């Protein structure tokens, strides 16, 4: 994809950073967020429909990427109105704007929309969200799929990317503990899922856009796994197996801090990408090694 004008809304986080890096060299980007934490960002609150529409229309893009969302399950449970304003109604704004300009829309969904009653979920399994975060994302996904012809909905798993500055997820939480001197890590052994490297995700989005294969896609790294195995691989890649003990615990151990309902399994299958022959998502172990090398300086 070259010489395109792309408006990216809500790209101040870990995924947005990867989109900026992957799409930026060959395209003209307008990148916005409510948190202007990088020089390539400008301010926009996409919950403000008039401001959102005016900014996009002024830029006159070929594509609209709606990336941002409240991703803290606990925040969404405690602030459901803001969750739906941000994760659902703002997505409706994006749909209306894209339809007005007759341009394709990219929306990012999540593996969290499933209830975890099955071990794995492919692209055609029907979601059953457990809480306000998952429900707000699922309603955004539905509105996109039902109201704009040229749409791309990509469901991510356990995101990793962005490094110390932007990663608020599992890998950086572990790295923060380790870098602070922790010698014991308590890790849940009852949560299953599929990691998603932000750069692979952005590259696969680009491939689908180039081919104009619209629709809904599961887009996660290869290799289903669990929190415990990811932590063990992280410690191995750091060369700290003999120094750091990983203690398996149930989710109840973190119930006070992480009280929102989470599915036991968020394992996605990339069946649709595979059938189309358009899957460039690598094994999660390969991506974790690259992530640690590129963002944390881990040479092993």
Explain what this protein looks like in three dimensions.
The chain is α/β, with parallel strands linked by helices. It has a single domain (5-167, 194-224, 263-284), classed as NAD(P)-binding Rossmann-like Domain (Rossmann fold). Helix content is 41%, strand content 18%. The chain contains eleven helices and 13 strands. The chain has a seven-stranded parallel beta sheet, sandwiched between helices. It has a two-stranded parallel ribbon with strand order 7-10. Helix 1 links the parallel strand 1 and strand 2 (28-33). Helix 9 (227-237) packs across helix 11. The two termini are 33 Å apart. The mean pLDDT is 95.
Order of helices and strands: EHEEHEHHEHEEHHEEEHEEHEHH
Query: How many separate domains make up the residues?
Result: 1
* CATH homology superfamily: NAD(P)-binding Rossmann-like Domain
What average pLDDT do the residues reach? 95
Model regions low in confidence, pLDDT < 50 over at least 5 residues: none
In helices, the fraction of residues equals 40-55%
Give the C-alpha Rg. 19 Å
Highest CATH level, the class:
Alpha Beta
Give the count of helical stretches: 11
Q: What distance lies between the first and last C-alpha atoms, to the nearest angstrom?
A: 33 Å
Structural class: alpha/beta
Strand content: 15-25%
Task: Give me the CATH architecture, please.
Answer: 3-Layer(aba) Sandwich
Under CATH, the topology can be stated as Rossmann fold
Strand count, sense and barrel status of the largest sheet are: 7 strands, parallel
Task: Record the strand order, biggest sheet.
Answer: 3-2-1-4-5-6-11
Overall strand count = 13
**What would the principal axes of the Cα set say about the shape?**
globular
């Amino acid at each position: 994809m070259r010489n395109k004008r792309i408006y990216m809304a809500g790209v101040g986080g870990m995924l947005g950073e990867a989109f900026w890096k992957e799409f930026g060299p060959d395209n003209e980007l307008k990148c916005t967020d409510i948190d202007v934490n990088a020089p390539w960002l400008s301010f926009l609150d996409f919950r403000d429909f008039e401001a959102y529409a005016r900014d996009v229309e002024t830029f006159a893009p070929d594509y609209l990427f709606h990336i941002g969302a409240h991703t803290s399950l606990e925040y969404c449970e405690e602030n459901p109105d803001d969750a739906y304003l941000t994760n659902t109604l703002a997505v409706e704004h994006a749909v209306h704007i894209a339809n007005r300009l007759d341009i394709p829309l990219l929306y990012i969904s999540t593996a969290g929309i499933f209830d975890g009653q099955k071990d794995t979920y492919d692209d055609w399994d029907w979601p059953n969200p457990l809480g306000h975060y998952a429900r707000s994302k699922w309603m955004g996904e539905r509105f996109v799929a039902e109201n704009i012809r040229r749409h791309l909905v990509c469901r991510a798993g356990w995101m990793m990317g962005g490094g110390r500055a932007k990663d608020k997820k599992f890998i950086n939480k572990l790295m923060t503990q380790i870098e602070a001197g922790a010698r014991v890590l308590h890790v849940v052994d009852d949560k299953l899922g599929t990691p998603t490297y932000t750069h692979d995700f952005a590259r696969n989005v680009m491939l689908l856009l180039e081919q104009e294969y619209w629709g809904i896609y599961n887009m996660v790294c290869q290799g289903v796994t669990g929190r415990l195995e990811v932590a063990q691989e992280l410690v191995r890649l750091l060369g700290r197996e003999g120094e750091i003990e990983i203690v398996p615990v149930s989710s109840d151990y973190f119930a006070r801090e992480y009280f929102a309902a989470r599915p036991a399994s968020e394992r996605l299958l990339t069946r649709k990408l595979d059938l189309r022959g358009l899957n460039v998502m690598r094994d999660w172990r390969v991506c974790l090694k690259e992530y640690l090398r590129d963002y944390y300086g881990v040479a092993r």
